Amino acid sequence: MCKELQPTQDLHWILTHEGYSVMTESAVESRFAFGNGFLGMRAARSVSRGPTWASWLGYIRWASWPRCYVAGLFDMPNTEPPVPALVPVADWSRVRLLLDGEPLAARDGEMLYGTRTLDLRRGLLLSDWMHRMPGGVTFTGQELRLLSQADRATGLQVLRFALDRDGVEVRLEASFGLAGLGMEPMRLERDLAAWRTEGTGKAVGMAGAATLSRGGDVAEAERPFPLRWIWRWRSVTGQAAVFARLVAVTRADRPEDDPAPRAAAALERSTSLGWRAVLAAHEAAWAERWTMNDVVIEGDDELQRALRFAVYHLTSAANPDDERVSIGARGLTGDAYFGHVFWDTEIYLLPFYTAVWPEAARALLMYRFHTLPGAREKAARMGCRGALYPWESADTGAETTPESVLGPNGTPIEILTGKMEHHISADVAYAVWHYWRATGDDTFLRQAGAEILLETARFWVSRAVVEADGRRHIRHVIGPDEYHEDVDDNAFTNVMARWTIARGLEVVALLQARWPDAAAALRTSLALDDDELAEWREAVGRIVDGRDPASGLYEQFAGFHDLALLDVADYADHALPIDVVIGRERTQGSQVVKQADVVALIALLPGEFPGSSAKTNFRHYEPRCAHGSSLSAAMHALVAARLGHAEMALRYMHETASLDLDPDPNSAGGVRIAGLGGLWQAVVRGFGGLNLAGERLEIDPRLPPQWQSLSFRTRWRDRTVAIKITPERVEATLLTGESMEIGVRASFVTLEQGTVLRVGLS
């Protein structure tokens, strides 16, 4: 048996799934998906499944939903309403095996055992199974699949199998399934093909090479069609056949570009190395990422594994080399939300990348810079200045939220999020500012970040209208709590808007002080004069925020406290969301909250909650939240951890982890990657108390009593710091970079490279 096909032995680093069920298969394919930020692939079985095609029979459930995705490859499918969607490319991993003319299929015969293993440490999908055919022939196989972290254009599949009988006629067919579905062919050659999308004019190139060896001898393949290989032989009992396939995929964004030559070059790189060297390079790249990204918890094995699962998918989703794409709500693991990008990326994912992989964070923020023209157009269409980012974004920056969808009875249902959920522009600004504060990336700030901050600030000044009371109001919005639509003065929206305007003023002053030429050039290009800046200063002081000065309690939106009280705990045992259980009208008329709203504000802007007001607001809103979104529990966990509610924080963390780790999760459409990013935040920023936004790196830990220690690494302004927290002390080691001052609770100490600094926790 090939050692390469064996999983890591440490159980903290692997997830396994036994057997097969049509009810859970699509969810398993999402959970065990693998990728590298450019390519993503669902963990569909490659050998024992039949063909897949689009079916109009909606009442038939697909036994498997194989998909391979290329980040940024969007087109407009024939859907109603029409919205851009991520285009699946050829399924290059399927292998069709016929034994004495009968196909090996999961639905026929008996699966004696079958295990899929996601090796988190090595970034591999491994399979090990035994199948008895109806005629009695027994197949035993192991498989490895990967999308290379070392060369993002490259994929690898290795299949080793044997039969228990002599003389069985074996036919192995390997091809690129559903090649070019919905795309126009550009070229089709022996080992290379390219297709172009019909609407966007983007193109994908794919190249492949495959080998088969038996008993150490390489067998010659029949090549009846391009990208198709066929081998035939008669079996020898126990003799292993090893099938290896390398694939290369490239994307071209302009009609005049041909991706095929780059795909051919990528295939040449991998075939010249050989599959074992490709595997070794991939494993080395993952090992390097884990050195930086891993978080170690002593005292909670379940949460440890869940956190590694989260970091695995976060690492698999990012590509620091491509600043024209971002990360959709389900990453590259499923079709849900069409691959669209939401506020999830900036609020739930960026803190992870900023802390451990700033190159990836920068690329994600540059995507927002490149799509700034679309945000300006959206603001202009609604009569505002500046930039309003789309609630759902694909590749161009245009709003991609459908305006309506058809309900179960065929009646159109208006979708208001694209029209009213405007806090996205503050969320993007928030991520830009905190990336710059943590990294000190002045080049990014001058060339991209400042323009985003100024244009989003300009939007909010024009959006917050002065009314008869002399205050500025932001009406007709949807906050994070999407159960309540078309509300006025949502506290999250208004406070984040005010914060964005204040940062806009701060960045103008910063540019003028440090880079006056750049400041003058940017102000000229944006036509930003002193009179407009004076209006910004006035706006900061006039925006309504709904805060009661006596109690410090924010009203979630104007009139929220006049709505009916409803005990959310009474509905905790229902499997369906509370708005489905009690109806939309009753939900909108009550104080039930879909997800963290004011609680999210506590997490993002703790400075807006002086004294005990954070606890006051959390105590008020936590019991009102029904957690109708996968984003909610992690945000509550983060705030609860900071406030010292350890047991509640742990409960919410385990709830977040269970969304994609339970045996039967509702994650067929892809993993909920924002929840995974939120889990990392709850652990590292919540219990670990990491803060990268100040003038120094700060740590204010509050470990739960059952944890012995928490260890992680972080980057801060060209330095790498290793941190270990125990109930008694914080240990910090400066691994790279110049000496620095760090804050541990109320203490400020200097950290020198190569020495371990220990600070006691009273």
UniProtKB/TrEMBL annotation:
Record bears the keyword Glycoprotein: no
Active-site residues, record numbering mapped to chain: E482 (proton donor)
Gene3D superfamilies recorded: 1.50.10.10, Glycoside hydrolase, family 65, N-terminal domain, Maltose phosphorylase, domain 3
Residue ranges occupied by any Glycoside hydrolase family 65 N-terminal domain in the UniProt entry: 17-175
Any single biological process term in GO: carbohydrate metabolic process
InterPro entries xref list: 6-hairpin_glycosidase_sf, 6hp_glycosidase-like_sf, Gal_mutarotase_sf_dom, GH65_N, Glyco_hydro_65_C, Glyco_hydro_65_M, Glyco_hydro_65_N, Malt_Pase/Glycosyl_Hdrlase
Keyword NADP: no
UniProt domain Glycoside hydrolase family 65 C-terminal: residue ranges: 692-745
GO molecular function annotation: carbohydrate binding; glycosyltransferase activity; hydrolase activity, hydrolyzing O-glycosyl compounds
Entry keywords, A to Z: Glycosyltransferase, Transferase
Highest rank taxon of the organism: Bacteria
Residue intervals of the Glycoside hydrolase family 65 central catalytic domain: 308-681
Positions of transmembrane segments: none
Binding site for substrate: W343, D344, K594, Q595
SUPFAM superfamilies (UniProt xref): Galactose mutarotase-like, Six-hairpin glycosidases
Family stated for the protein in its record: Belongs to the glycosyl hydrolase 65 family.
Entries under PANTHER family matching the protein: GLYCOSYL HYDROLASE-RELATED, PROTEIN-GLUCOSYLGALACTOSYLHYDROXYLYSINE GLUCOSIDASE
Name this polypeptide is given: Kojibiose phosphorylase
Source organism of the structure: Methylobacterium tarhaniae
